[in-house]
Specification:
Length: about 230
């Protein structure tokens, strides 16, 4: 097979207004590149060669990594060029800095003994849960304190979700853990230990669009009459 055969195959497939395209999609350790003719997957020696060329251009290898990529390059029978866009996006950890009136305050009466407090938000934007756990060195926690923390969880979660919904269109907030050490807290309140959550985390994404071209004329000049 020669490059002229690839061009001839593309021209033949594009007759009668059929769209010939090289397509791709993947990320997160799986993905593929394939040919379509008039919306149907195509398989031929020529299409396999084109798929290999696109794999080289995209250079996603085994598609390993925390990203998503997709696109299609459509053939122009007049110019002998496939042209399209590669839409690439990847997750990025983002933070919302809470305004003074948004700060989430957790108050624990000083009559309870504890050395610290752990607050965990488990993807609360997508139905996850919130937990508030007292930390003590000997592992013995007052049952009233446990109940108090459990009763605060829903209120804290609802406020955090409301803030995130107003701040972002993301539907994934991931896992956020806040650790407080009682001995390091400022003495804001004579009766309560006060722990302030001043930031909330969520997963956003960065997106870029890159033009992709497979110029069969250039390949014709490069390979001439060489067998592919």
């Amino acid at each position: 097979m020669k490059i002229e055969d690839v061009i001839k195959w593309c021209d033949e497939q594009s007759q009668n207004g059929n769209e010939v395209a090289i397509c791709w999609e993947g990320g997160g350790d799986s993905g593929w590149v394939y040919m379509e003719v008039d919306g149907e997957q195509a398989s031929a020696e020529e299409s396999d060669w084109l798929v290999d060329r696109m794999c080289d251009i995209l250079d996603y290898g085994s598609w390993a990594g925390e990203f998503n990529a997709s696109g299609r390059a459509v053939y122009d029978a007049e110019t002998k060029v496939f042209e399209g866009d590669d839409v690439y996006s990847e997750d990025s950890a983002e933070q919302v800095e809470l305004k003074e009136d948004q700060i989430i305050k957790i108050k624990i009466p000083k009559k309870y003994f504890l050395e610290g407090l752990r607050v965990e938000f488990d993807n609360i934007l997508d139905g996850g849960a919130t937990s508030i756990t007292p930390v003590v060195r000997n592992g013995i926690i007052n049952s009233e304190l446990i109940t108090l923390c459990e009763n605060m969880e829903k209120e804290i979660e609802d406020k955090a979700v409301e803030i995130l919904r107003d701040a972002t269109s993301s539907d994934y907030s991931g896992w956020q853990t806040e650790e407080f050490i009682i001995s390091e807290l400022e003495d804001e309140d004579p009766e309560n230990y006060v722990m302030n959550i001043t930031t909330l985390e969520y997963m956003g994404y960065d997106e870029s669009i890159l033009g992709i071209i497979v110029d069969l004329n250039e390949y014709a000049e490069q390979f001439n009459d060489v067998e592919l």
